[in-house]
Specification:
The complex is a heterodimer of chains A (about 350) and B (about 170). Chain A is of the alpha/beta class. Chain A folds into 3 domains: about 120 residues, no CATH class; about 80 residues, OB fold (Dihydrolipoamide Acetyltransferase, E2P), CATH 2.40.50; about 70 residues, OB fold (Dihydrolipoamide Acetyltransferase, E2P) (Beta Barrel). Chain A has 9 helices and 12 strands. Chain B has a single domain, classed as RNA polymerase sigma factor, region 2, helix turn helix motif (Rna Polymerase Sigma Factor, Chain: A), CATH 1.10.1740. Helix content of chain B is about 65%, strand content about 0%. Classes of the chains: A alpha/beta (about 350), B mainly alpha (about 170). The interface between A and B is medium-sized, with 25 and 40 residues.
Amino acid sequence: MFDEINEEKKLKQELEKFTEGIEVEKSTYYRAMARYESSLKEKKRFTPFFKIIIPVTLSFLLIFLSVFPVFGNNGTLIDILNTQRINRRISSLKNISVSQTENKSNSTVDSTIIQTILEKEFGLTPPKIYKLKAQNADYAETVAVVIIANLTNVEPENIVEMRRNNYGWGIIIRKRGIDPGAAMLKLEQIRRKLESKEKNILIRGEVEAISDNTSSIIINTFPFKIYLSEDTEIEGTIKEGKSLEIEASYIISSNFVKALKVRELNPSDIGIQPFIGQVVNISKNSLTLLLKDGTQKEFIFTPQTLLIPPHISLIPGRIVRCDSITDGGKLILVRIVQRRPPLQPPHSFLPQNSIKRR
Amino acid sequence: MEEINKEIIERAKDGDREAMSEIFEIYKNYVARSVYIMLGKNDGVEDITENVFFKIFTNLKSFDIERDFKPWLSRIILNETRNYIGKNKITILNDSKDLELFEAPNVLNREEIMDIKEGLKKLSTTEREIITLRYYQELTVDEISRILRIPKNTIKVKIHRALKKLRGVV
């Protein structure tokens, strides 16, 4: 310890000695001072520019962009920012669907889930939902349209019209006087509902098959078996070919669907008109059927038109049933139906003891 | 090295050229000698000293008068020396193979110079920086730790190692 203290003292002295001859001339000061003076001049020259002109110009620009709709149908800068925020939420809705849809048949499930949310959350009737779905390329956009319409008590068609005229979401919600936060909160709530593992869904369609062994039925509009239990409330009878409306609980991870309520349904009650006939002509946008009474009817395809089964080939001469809704004098195709073999879910998902034979 | 009068710094902060000149007079050799120990040769000492004083004058406005001036100055010296070495890619003492390249001040006995130079040559760059800060600039371990952003214990270990390497030379 003593040695180290001595060493330290010695080192200090040695360093002092070592650097003794180093002397700095006054000229170094003059050079440093000259650089300092010149940097001050530069600073003075640019200070007003950086401190006043740029911030003031930027502020004016921001105010101008925020107040005046210089971005055409996208409105002001604030509108654009709101549009982006809402688009992000809509994308997150789409992503949920993508993450859970592993095969094509599940897009039918997505469609059913969304339809249920729109009916239960927003009180929309099935024909209205079909019309909206026919007008929008994807369901996430349909949900956004319904939310905005619901918040302002206007018809969703008005919002659809604005979207068709390329108005951004930001300008739409400003024109409708909606708080952007409220719209985004509602979208977030829907997203959470979509993310839940167990969902309540409304399935409408015709009974395609009944299995006594497993107490289950197959509905032509839905890809998975629907299991009936002792708790299932049933109004009317369940027979092949009969139209039913089923309230069910759907577990995503296993595609297990348990019926809660089953009742008979007349398709016309929910605004759907069925037409049975022979395919005469098919184009990119429409399908023409020759009906039994000898008349021909043209039906319009939409991106949401369901094909049951999905691999159905629509060739002239084939007999199909076209379920459609009437919109502005036109027949819009909700689905085209043909008989198909029943789908079997994986054996491991079948409950063994919980459901009694009926 | 005695502490500078805060009143001089206050005046220099306000742009008083006379006070700036006083700061230069007080610290000119202190700065140059610190650089000399860290660099290990005369080349560049004058340029770095000029840069250090330019930085002092430019940044004085942001200096907190309540704090010690010396650690603040030491950080500038260290940064400017490192910048100079980086920009000019110069070889510092421990990397030099040719002892004769080292230009010593004339006033010292050549044998003594060779001794301390030999000793410093054994140190790494960080160790030499720490030795300069601790034994020439006489900063505390705490202050060195803050300047170099190295934990106090590491500083202590490095000092111990450096002293061990210098043993026999000093």
